[in-house]
């Protein structure tokens, strides 16, 4: 009988026996095929045996019912762990039963496939949704391994697990706990699959970037291409953007109409009118039923998440014990990956930019410093106080500048998706952003970006002029409109 | 021709950009389809059915057509069409004859308006006329009792038709037949079936089940997003950090704590840093210092910016060393490192959407156009940097077709591919 079970439950008087029964009761629903146990229900508590439980349902249920009635007095500790785990798996997509978790602690192989699948769904939710067929076991294992590694999972044992997904349930359990501990995993998963009831517009692109579309299978151009091919691609891109902008304008006009036509129909006064999804729900009864179902299942998951939050302490204490059962790791690194070009290219770009900037700053600052020193050489002590004040002021400004990117500048920009609501001008007191404000912010950002683009183009022009100037005997006529 | 590896990289970048654009277009098309369908006439099978709740709630709320017309209704509607067509014909005939019938009609009109009896000279279409008058007007919203005009009206008029009294909620005051001759019978017939958002959108009501589920949903999201500190929450947070520390310790080797994802995020931050520093530098350089003090401050600012830039470069080198030396593994595939993340993604994320109020369609269109323009500029800047990095070195080395290459590169890099320059050979005239 593992010691930690008694630690958890001994305080409550009934002891381990009740926990064994509790586990049995919870897990009767998920009976897996197993060989005949060597003992009947009452005696062996540490090993739960579904076959035996199935054989003696009356005895189990009777004892459970008795237990259940008395469980109320005992307090929460007894059933808390399976309950917490059940809440957790209700929140997760493809969450396995608490029994799988318990088996994973003892590194049982039958628990591994479910945990591989769970981790796959958690780490790459998009491919699970969009894929026509579920990925093969090896592919899932590979994706999970690489994703965990890129996020910095510290234990190397995971990388050594076989690709057929038959082993390693304890390691996977640790990986799941690690992901849960690091950040708001559940909230993020729920937000990704959130049912969208309103007409939403993303204010910043971070969501679009964090969720790239399914990778398009594309035949790469192997051979060298002519530069005209590049020009053609650029032209195509420009045209696509123009088309996109016109379609978007049309969509806005339609949205405006739908919002005005359904004024006053919404039960929520702050919204006032129906959204496209809600109107569609009224038009198409079947689609509406589906939406309702999805909404209700999301509600179930949200409630499970809140339940989990209240009870997760028990889970973390249990995970400490799981970690305790693992053997310590050897210190040999086994992962020898290659760095693909694209990542390195990104680094190159930034490095180049910073170096160019540094050159320019040096070129600007040094002559000024020299000129200044020459001027100020003999000035008196009252000057030094002023100098100090200036230094402090500039220091503060630069510190503020540094904070702007270190914190990501999130405070400055409106963030996240927004639900569009048409309301007559004058609602200045209520919650929510105003379109006029957002337009201002976007305009300033547009101006910024245009300035950057112009500056880059100017740089190119200078560079090309320099290169072309090496060849005499040619006249370069710039295009009109400059 | 460009060298193979350069071509591959550039084509890949451009195709990525095209794919991103195409994805947006696809989503937009989907939304457009849905919106257009909503604004058209809704099919009869799709008209919103009145709630199975007691009639008082739905009277005047639900749009008048029932979900499926019964066979009896259909038969009656047929008769209705016939009667209406006849009415139009007769009225045309009547109006031609002029005064004589007018006198007659006035007399019968007075009788008709007060009549509750359908004591019209019974005709074969008597039954139909009752139905005609009852079902007019089609909408059941606006009724005007127009004084009967012309002979046919008194036949058509039957106030408080007995057979139709039962349909309580649609107790419409029967008016005479088509009041204006402009309403063609066919349209009047179709009208009970058709539902358009424009005309009857304000009558829609959301089903109760949906309302409950939606309010519960928003309540739960609000609860989930609220970060309240209570004892249990704090204890859980400490337990989590302890667990992470133990994990780190039991894994082999100390590790630098840096993951590939973290490195990528930092590189992104440094890219933002670079652009912010550059912007500040340009501000300082373009400002004209008015006096000594300002000059001094400009100098200090420039030197400060220089120091920060060096720090950033240093950090970048450290990151590079971490990636290479500690074998942090491949950069995650599928994430496009292109555009900059001004929001530093993930800082205090908002889980459920907030409201964005707009007042007119023009405002919304401006907003969307600006948003797309910002995204397009982001992409253009990224492409510009990539193209610069790949193409400028090629121009530096003079190969065959150098002039053509130069001209093409100039147009791509300096004009966004929209305009071309002209190159003339300057031959001495001798």
From TrEMBL, chain A:
Compositionally biased spans, kind Basic and acidic residues: 1-11
Xref: InterPro entries: TEDC1, TEDC1_dom
Basic residues bias locations: 13-27
Highest taxon in the source lineage: Eukaryota
Domain Tubulin epsilon and delta complex protein stretches: 152-323
Region annotation Disordered: where it falls in the sequence: 1-44
PANTHER family from the UniProt entry: TUBULIN EPSILON AND DELTA COMPLEX PROTEIN 1
Protein name as it appears in the record: Tubulin epsilon and delta complex protein 1 isoform X2
Organism of origin: Acinonyx jubatus (Cheetah)
Biological classification of the source: Eukaryota, Metazoa, Chordata, Craniata, Vertebrata
Gene of this entry: TEDC1
UniProtKB/TrEMBL annotation, chain B:
InterPro entries per record: DUF4693
Start and end residues of each stretch annotated as Disordered: 38-75, 91-140, 158-186
Low complexity bias locations: 105-126
Domain of life, source organism: Eukaryota
A Pfam family the protein falls into: DUF4693
Name of this chain's protein: Tubulin epsilon and delta complex protein 2 isoform X3
């Amino acid at each position: 009988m593992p010691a930690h079970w008694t630690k958890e439950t001994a305080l409550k008087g009934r002891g381990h026996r009740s926990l064994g029964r509790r586990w049995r009761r919870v897990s009767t629903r998920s009976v897996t095929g197993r060989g005949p146990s060597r003992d009947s229900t009452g005696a062996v508590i540490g090993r739960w045996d579904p076959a035996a439980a199935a054989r003696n349902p009356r005895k189990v249920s009777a004892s459970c019912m008795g237990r259940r009635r008395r469980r109320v007095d005992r307090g929460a500790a007894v059933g808390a762990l399976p309950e917490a785990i059940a809440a957790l798996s209700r929140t997760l997509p493809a969450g396995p039963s608490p029994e799988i978790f318990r088996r994973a602690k003892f590194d049982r192989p039958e628990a591994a496939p479910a945990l591989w699948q769970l981790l796959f769904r958690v780490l790459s939710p998009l491919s699970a949704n969009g894929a026509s067929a579920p990925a093969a076991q090896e592919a899932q294992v590979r994706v999970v391994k690489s994703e965990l590694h890129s996020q910095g999972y510290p234990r190397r044992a995971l990388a050594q697990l076989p690709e057929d997904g038959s082993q390693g349930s304890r390691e996977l359990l640790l990986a799941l706990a690690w992901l849960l501990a690091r950040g708001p995993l559940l909230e993020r998963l729920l937000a990704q699959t959130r049912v969208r009831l309103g007409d939403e517009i993303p204010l910043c692109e971070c969501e679009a970037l964090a969720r790239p579309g399914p990778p398009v299978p594309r035949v790469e151009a192997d051979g060298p291409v002519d530069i005209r091919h590049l020009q053609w691609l650029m032209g195509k891109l420009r045209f696509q953007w123009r088309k996109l902008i016109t379609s978007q304008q049309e969509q806005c006009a339609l949205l405006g109409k739908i919002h005005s036509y359904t004024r006053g129909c919404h039960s929520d006064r702050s919204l006032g009118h129906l959204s496209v999804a809600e109107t569609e729900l009224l038009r198409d009864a079947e689609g509406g039923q589906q939406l309702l179902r999805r909404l209700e299942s999301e509600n179930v998951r949200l409630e499970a998440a809140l339940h989990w939050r209240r009870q997760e302490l028990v889970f973390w204490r249990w995970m400490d014990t799981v970690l305790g059962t693992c053997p310590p790791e050897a210190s040999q690194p086994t992962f020898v990956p290659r760095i693909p070009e694209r990542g390195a290219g990104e680094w190159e770009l930034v490095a180049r930019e910073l170096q160019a900037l540094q050159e320019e700053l040096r070129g600007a600052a040094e002559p000024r410093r020299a000129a200044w020193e020459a001027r100020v050489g003999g000035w008196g002590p009252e000057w030094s106080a002023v100098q100090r004040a200036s230094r402090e002021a500039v220091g503060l400004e630069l510190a503020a500048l540094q904070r702007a990117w270190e914190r990501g500048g999130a405070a400055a920009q409106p963030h996240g998706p927004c639900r569009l609501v048409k309301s007559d001008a004058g609602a200045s007191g209520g919650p929510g952003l105003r379109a006029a404000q957002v337009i201002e912010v976007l305009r300033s950002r547009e101006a910024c970006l245009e300035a950057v683009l112009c500056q880059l183009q100017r740089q190119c022009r200078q560079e090309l002029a320099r290169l072309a100037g090496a060849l005499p005997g040619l006249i370069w006529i710039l295009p009109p409109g400059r | 021709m460009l060298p193979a590896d350069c071509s591959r990289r550039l084509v890949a970048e451009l195709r990525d950009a095209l794919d991103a654009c195409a994805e947006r277009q696809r989503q937009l098309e989907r939304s457009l389809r849905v919106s257009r369908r909503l604004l058209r006439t809704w099919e009869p099978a799709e008209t919103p059915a009145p709630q199975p709740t007691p009639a008082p709630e739905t009277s005047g709320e639900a749009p008048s057509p029932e979900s499926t017309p019964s066979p009896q209704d259909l038969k009656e509607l047929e008769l209705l069409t016939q009667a209406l067509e006849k009415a139009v014909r007769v009225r045309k005939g009547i109006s031609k004859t002029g005064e004589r019938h007018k006198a007659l009609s006035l007399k019968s009109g007075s009788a008709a308006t007060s009549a509750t009896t359908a004591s019209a000279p019974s005709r074969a279409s008597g039954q139909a006329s009752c139905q005609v008058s009852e079902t007019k007007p089609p909408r059941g919203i606006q009724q005007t009792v127009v004084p009967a005009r012309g002979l046919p009206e008194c036949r058509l008029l039957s106030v408080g038709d007995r057979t139709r009294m039962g349909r309580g909620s649609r107790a419409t005051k029967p008016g005479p037949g088509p009041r204006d001759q402009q309403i063609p019978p066919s349209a009047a017939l179709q009208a009970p079936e058709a539902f358009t958002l424009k005309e009857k959108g304000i009558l829609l009501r959301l089903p109760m089940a949906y309302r409950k589920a939606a309010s519960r949903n928003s309540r739960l999201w609000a609860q989930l997003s609220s970060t309240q500190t209570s004892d249990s929450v704090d204890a859980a947070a400490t337990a989590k950090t302890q667990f992470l520390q133990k994990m780190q310790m039991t894994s082999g080797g100390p590790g630098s704590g840096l993951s590939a994802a973290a490195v990528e995020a930092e590189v992104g931050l440094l890219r933002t840093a670079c652009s912010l520093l550059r912007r500040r530098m340009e501000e300082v350089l373009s400002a004209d210092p008015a006096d000594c003090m300002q000059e001094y401050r400009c100098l200090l600012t420039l030197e400060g910016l220089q120091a920060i830039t060096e720090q950033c470069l240093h950090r970048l080198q450290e990151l590079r060393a971490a990636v290479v030396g500690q074998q942090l593994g491949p950069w995650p595939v599928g994430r496009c490192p292109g555009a900059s993340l001004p929001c530093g993604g993930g800082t205090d994320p908002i889980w459920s959407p907030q409201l964005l109020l707009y007042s007119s369609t023009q405002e919304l269109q401006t907003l969307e156009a600006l948003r797309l323009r910002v995204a397009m500029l982001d992409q253009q800047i990224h492409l510009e940097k990539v193209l610069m990095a790949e193409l400028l070195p090629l121009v530096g080395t003079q190969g065959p077709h150098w002039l053509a290459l130069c001209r093409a590169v100039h147009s791509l890099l300096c004009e966004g591919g929209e305009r071309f320059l002209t190159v003339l050979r300057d031959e001495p005239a001798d």
